[in-house]
């Protein structure tokens, strides 16, 4: 689904600057002058090398930056029209409960090791009712597990996180995040720790769940191939700034910023063993190959 630019953005970030403490007297400008927007149902990528500010930007939009008074946030983050910079913790909690969900690279950190997976999805659906073992909530939990690509949801629901593979845990985390029915899901390097085939499966799950539920997606990755296969627009970050943005097609076929051009050159270099090209749509891959031949 391509978002209409006529709709009001779900999230609008303007001139965001985040300064984080790094020691007793030192700090770092983690991001500077970052502006971006996400419309309802849109899938947007943020790419850039390690340390470029992708995670800090994602965490800022989810209100998940460290809460120390030494963390300085400036600019504007509008979520559904509401200004969230300087908003109290309770307002952010409301946003995270109803509007913005986030999933990270390491699912074990976020899953409860001593609670069965099904119960964790139930808790996410109904934070107040799940303890009563409400059959309706239980049925919904199985539906979310099915949506996350588990063909036999009851058998997964009975298991504990340590009984699942890394890819399965990541898909459980997607089910838990989607079960809150957020309007925006921010996925920060959700597949980086997984091997290529499992990565593909998890990305398919992510893609299908956001498509089916109409959820907007911000996909954060250093891997341009992963982002290209999943998104309609891309923001390129470098040294804490957005250096370029455009449709995925524009970024891949006519990158303007030298950093984006360098990123793409490294992807095109097939001699690099780590680079995954499988996920760049075939049509764009052909175009890239043709340009390379000129
Ligand atoms: N909690 C923190 N405390 C202090 N500095 C931080 C913290 N988190 C990030 N930074 C710094 O902020 C800058 C941006 O980091 P960020 O994690 O957003 O980069 P990234 O593009 O997501 O990289 P990666 O892919 O490695 O996570 C870096 O200089 C980083 O060292």
TrEMBL record:
It is found in: Cell membrane. It holds the Pfam family ABC_tran. Its main location: membrane. It comes from the Bacteria. Gene3D superfamilies: P-loop containing nucleotide triphosphate hydrolases. Residues 11-264 form the ABC transporter domain. Keywords: ATP-binding, Cell inner membrane, Cell membrane, Membrane, Nucleotide-binding, Translocase, Transport. CDD domains: ABC_NikE_OppD_transporters. GO terms for molecular function: ATP binding. It is a peripheral membrane protein. Belongs to the ABC transporter superfamily. This is ABC transporter ATP-binding protein. It comes from Nesterenkonia flava.
